[in-house]
């Protein structure tokens, strides 16, 4: 995926509204913005619905006269191909958690819009911006569709499992043993728009393939499940060997194949620990192996670095590497939403973590809701949940992060 910068749009907010937001209570927000009571399932559903509506306003490529190569996609620029797959994954979960069918047809159509000529989500029109991690995000959406029993698309479209199998087979065909004794490269093509990306073996690409394998192992059986288990074990072992995952379960961004993966570099991003966390949770739940339970436990602990004190004293989710400095690009604005998504799914598989995850996401959801107080509609979401009110930013990443954080309460509280 590309690391493009984003543009800003100004909205008018009055000082009275800002002062009013500053006194919103953490458990029940009733000020300008999204009203939410984190202890009430109907209130959380309504808040999730408001954020979903706001996110879907960015999507317009479902009209009958939309060119076929644009169907299912957010506008580019600024949104790269991967983020549309991430959005449909969020909408699959929204349907599963809330029961709201308002976007069901759009979601199903969106999922099959970019299958590519070989039904494996390799799309020639996106050679310039499709990496292994980008393809994985469409796979995450497909797996969520399977796990939540989302209706399959009408014939002649393939069913979700057939598509996921094809996507995974295509992805692992690029497991690269020519450098570093294995690993997935970030970019699929040497001439991709990211200079050097072909030589970068990063956490989200390898963690993405790992999570796909672990989740596929859970929903298949016999020899097929065993093959996916073998892939998950191999990718985990490689990730540890090259240092993407350290002994404290910190997850680093990537390593350079051109230097034999001799060192890791880059900051820690929330979605990197999140993707390994969910994969390890799936492995622990499937195998009942203490080793995988220990790994998942370590990743849950490590993930807490992405929570900081909010205005009410509770811990709120944030993107530590860029958010406090105002340097998050378009992609990075969505990352913490995926951490919320995968933490709650992991805790659903490993209930020992449910209480702590519920505590973290309950305070984060309240803070996210009060950040959704901008724009002409008064419910446009910002990104900085640790400050009072809207921060003046807007976009798909902001909406999706708030939506993922809020709707996660429906799972961790057993309301979905």
TrEMBL record:
GO terms for biological process: carbohydrate catabolic process; fungal-type cell wall biogenesis. Its main location: membrane. Gene3D superfamilies: 1.50.10.20. Pfam families: Glyco_hydro_76 (PF03663). GO terms for molecular function: mannan endo-1,6-alpha-mannosidase activity. It is an enzyme of class 3 (hydrolase). Keywords: Glycoprotein, Glycosidase, Hydrolase, Membrane, Signal. It is found in: Endomembrane system. It catalyses: Random hydrolysis of (1->6)-alpha-D-mannosidic linkages in unbranched (1->6)-mannans. It comes from the Eukaryota. One of its GO terms (cellular component) is endomembrane system. Its EC number is 3.2.1.101. InterPro entries: 6-hairpin_glycosidase_sf, Glyco_hydro_76, Mannan-1_6-alpha_mannosidase. Belongs to the glycosyl hydrolase 76 family. This is Mannan endo-1,6-alpha-mannosidase. It comes from Microthyrium microscopicum. The lineage of its organism: Eukaryota, Fungi, Dikarya, Ascomycota, Pezizomycotina.
